[in-house]
Design goal:
Chains A, B, C, D: This is Heme-binding protein. The structure is a homotetramer. Chain A is 47% helix and 20% strand. Chains B and C meet through helix 2 and helix 4 of B and helix 2 and helix 4 of C.
């Protein structure tokens, strides 16, 4: 099952709403499909101009490796040269920290990933999770 | 004046609505700020996975050169080697055809660009224009 | 529906068998999923070492653009600078000639692409089609 | 002596069979020739989409340096900047961990390399070795 544009909009709106309710800094949120391709993205007013690439890098690495941001960060801390090499083969497109969140359907299959950036990595991940859960899907941070 | 996220949403929604009303193929729409950085993007269900890069390339070239898609295409037809060289200096990120539309405010200043892809280049440009006009801004195709 | 590894093997074996029966030069065959990612690849003995990249480029462009090799070639002939620019945004990974074949399921949805290289582009496409049809899927050359 | 496509198929099938017997996660297996060029690749159903690049990076580094994954990992741990620099000259295509396995013929000459990814690096290397030995060649992990 693919994430529809409608569900992607819900994920983004609810992630941004979570950021406003918990008084986070301006957020940027991306939704990728199961092949790592962009479905939708929004950057809040006041966010730095380069935030697309950070949001994308968090979500893209999650899809390519089948491993969410928290697991990627652990691997980067254990074996920095491995994650550096992984970035080489993926064209430097991987940001291995929380805020990259895998999206699974009811059967547990990966159907996409969400990337959030703007506040701390943990707050970014919480915003992503809020959006994903509001859409009826399951997030793995 | 920058294009707000709110106005960007209006541009995208109205461009997509134009596509549905005129029975175009599934569209993808991007809004860039005046520095060429992504504010928002949406890809309709059924569009090919690589459409982000095409929409981005149309809008990015418009911003970088201060020249909309129609003018870029004319230049590419007159002097193919020039647009090839332009792509060299901009890292291959420019798609010089209609559907890349400059966005101007009431004083005529460029405040961003919209890129649309999915149907013919001319139909893409018309959808972009519909979105921009619905937001109260002015488009240059 | 995704193309399974089992179906991918059938596609490759039957494409290569078609090549042997019709006395084509040594072929290389790739199967990509609907996100443009490699499922399987084989290069026959005697094929040139660089054939992976050609097979990949034919199939990858088909997926990214949602347009098979024949349509890409027409576009390249009509508007060479457009396909050159497309290659820029896709990192130079697109080979716009026949032999890149879209794979559709019974409902007409694109589920992947096959790329064949080694003989003439038209013979390459015929081999891809033979493999796809043997797997019960539908090819668009 | 080159690795034939037939032997490459045996290597891949037996490596995957080893993975199933020992209950590893879904694996991806690549076989490169002595010039570092792809002969064959298969990705099991359920493996993450980006696995081709990881399998390739493990095998490619082994061929380019004439040094298998275990030796590369030791070098990366001793001298991270060296492996980073190696990746610079090889275009970021080297993944220096076990699972990249050199393939030697009876006279001890390097005839290719196998790359396996999907489980732990050590399990990946064991699967590669099982495949290589089943083909009558010798693996160096």
């Amino acid at each position: 099952m693919a994430i529809s544009l409608n569900k992607s909009r819900t994920i983004i709106r609810k992630a941004l709403a979570h950021g406003r309710e918990t008084e986070l800094k301006p957020l940027s949120v991306i939704v990728l499909d199961s092949g790592g391709h962009v479905i939708a993205f929004e950057r809040e007013d006041g966010a730095a101009p380069g935030r697309f690439a950070i949001a994308h890098g968090k979500a893209f690495g999650s899809i390519m490796l089948g491993m969410a941001g928290t697991a990627q960060m652990k691997r980067a801390e254990d074996q920095a040269y491995f994650m550096a090499a992984v970035n080489g083969v993926y064209g430097g497109q991987v940001i291995p920290v929380p805020g990259g969140v895998l999206v699974r359907d009811k059967r547990g299959r990966i159907v996409g990933a969400v990337g959030v950036t703007g506040d701390t990595s943990d707050n970014d991940a919480a915003a992503a999770l809020a959006g994903i859960e509001a859409s009826g899907l399951t997030g793995e941070i």
